[in-house]
Amino acid sequence: MICPLDFRYGRNVVKNIFTEEERYRKMAKVEEALAYAYFKINKIKEDDFKNIKDACLKLNINRVKEIEKETKHDVMAMVRAITELAGESGKYVHLGATSNDIVDTAVSLQLKDFYSILEEDITKLKIELKNLALKYKDTIMLGRTHGQHALPITFGLKMAVYLAEVNRHHERIKESRKRVLVGKMMGAVGTGAGFSGKALEIEKYTMEYLGLGIEEGPTQIIGRDRYIEYMSIISNLATTLEKIATEIRNLQRPEINEVSEYFDIEKQVGSSTMAHKMNPITSENICSLSRIIRSFIIPTYENNILWHERDLTNSAGERFTIPHASVLIDDIMNKMVWVLSTLKVNEKIMEKNLESVKYFIMDERIILKLVEKGLGRQEAHELVRKYAIKSQTEGLDFKNIFLSDEKINKLIDAKELDEIVDPKKYLGEYDKIIDRIIESSFKK
Question: Is 271 known to be catalytic?
Fold first, then answer.
């Protein structure tokens, strides 16, 4: 085994969709659907359709491989293997079709199976984010911009913002179904010439049988802009997962220590030499695999640039990109669900970190209060800026040096300043924003 998907990453429920065996089963299913279409337009008898269907179900992959050694063509090998099993009805197998009618439509069947799992995954992820948003709706913490202390937010709001982003991905996935999950049955250059004037009917019945949409503008293949859309959605989703994982990793740093991944203190080992380590390894793994997923977007774009009605430069690449990206996005989504469902939120540390810098992070509210008292906005900003910088760079107490300014002392006293810098009183409409996101994300 060489590929890490074989022994380290991915769930079997997804990997099984993209195995070689399942690929052949899906291709045989397309041949079965084509026979059904011929039966529906009265070109073959019902018994012929049933014989071909039975042959497709009994397809022996080992026999296909035997034939492929001679033909050097996987689809033709499969067609011959089905024909052998179908008896006299075998003469109708693959009639009028080209290889990529079968291959591309089979890929769409694989993606159709995966889309159902993908939507289950993203729903589970949304539920975990909603649970955290509600549980920690009022848990105040430091907001940070540029890696520096900003204004107070709540941990629930942070999770709700992620929920809103994940919900947009969910909408993209649902909306893309009609463009991604399509099949093709129009022959060698997309004209349907091999179907004796019945191509549109045959295509219609074939895709209805398979539960797929129709490629309305085919060449020899389905338009690869569809795969680009799919891979773009997957890559976008992977980016969000990495963003969440990166935030967890940052907040778990000992000098912040506001959240942490679950760590089995009885058994788990953080380092082979530094025995004290409790590392956010799953979040790191999510980040690492997200980058692999996004790396597939470039070859996916390149695969849409083909000569004339089609060449083979896309084929090998797609055998890597679609299965690997699909397996890995499912893998990291389920890992993220686990991270969030077992996440340790250190509310006391959040409160402690907030308390230590409350005079600085509440400077916007101090400015607004000075403006209320009659100072101009720019003058108020400069006064607060001057004493905040002086306090930080010289290690002085902000409250003392700020109130020692005669102009300020005439407007604000110590008691009022303490009221102004209460973070609980400067959270805006965080609760309504959280409620709005949750309602939007779970509307029927």
Answer: yes
Q: What is the Cα gyration radius of the chain?
A: 30
Largest CA distance in the chain: 104
Angstrom distance (rounded) from CA 423 to CA 360:
11
For the chain, what is the mean pLDDT?
94
In a domain? residue 6: no
Q: Which helix (H) or strand (E) holds 183?
A: strand 182-183
Cα 334–chain centre separation: 11
Catalytic residue among 146, 272, 276, 308: 146
Q: Would residue 7 count as lying in a domain? A: no
Residues 83-93 have a mean pLDDT of 97
Whether 246 maps to a domain, the answer reads: yes
Tens digit of each residue's pLDDT (9 = 90 or more) over 60-77:
999 999 999 999 999 999
Degrees to nearest 5, angle at CA 234 with 163 and 286: 70
C-alpha to C-alpha distances, 287 to 131, 328, 336, nearest whole angstrom: 23, 11, 10
Q: Which helix (H) or strand (E) holds 135?
A: helix 99-135
> Which has the closest alpha carbon to 161: 361, 436, 384, 444?
436
Are 343 and 422 members of one domain?
Answer: no
Catalytic-labelled residue, pool 196, 271, 295, 356: 271
- Location of structure tokens 């091999």: 194
Looking at residue 264, its pLDDT comes to 62
Last residue of a domain, one of 310, 334, 350: 350
Domain that holds residue 80: 14-95
User: Phi and psi of 126, rounded to 5°?
Assistant: -60, -40
CATH number at residue 360: 1.10.40.30
* 391 in catalytic set: no
User: With pLDDT > 70 as the criterion, what percentage of the chain qualifies?
Assistant: 98
CA-to-CA separations, 262 to 195, 257, 274, 340, 426, in angstroms, rounded: 60, 13, 18, 9, 32
Same domain for 177 and 57: no
Domain identity same for 20 and 43: yes
Q: For 429, which DSSP code?
A: T
Closest alpha carbon to 181 in 267, 275, 110, 87? 110
At 2 the three-state DSSP class reads: coil
Number of domains composing the chain: 3
